[in-house]
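Morning run. Coffee first, then this:
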Amino acid sequence: MEKSELKRLVNGYCIQVFFLTCLLYYPIKFWGPDNWQLPSVVGCAFAFLFYIIDGWVWYWVALRHKDFMTSFFTGTSGLRFLLALAIIGIYYLLTDGANMMTFLLVFFIYYMLLLTHHSIFFSRVSKRV
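And here it is:
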């Protein structure tokens, strides 16, 4: 696969991630309870930043080191999980812990939706690389 096609795929991936995070964020923003607002912002920021960076790192790996793709996907999964645990831990330490279940529920929705999107998108794309 050539460089321009890889770049087009990553740009499409970034646009899809943007729309998925907006699809979750705005309904919670307008119709969700007040105690869902902060977890939604945290989940949206985590999802958007992690998956955009992940897309561009994937582009770099696919362009230069195609033989490391399986290691890249394994590392990405581990890093995503560890960062999610770190964010959950930081939230727990910074808040009173009373809304922890609400935070976990909302954060888990972002995590799972974008994990599913990531898996489907890159399983399709990796077959072509």
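The radius of gyration is 16 Å. Good start to the day.
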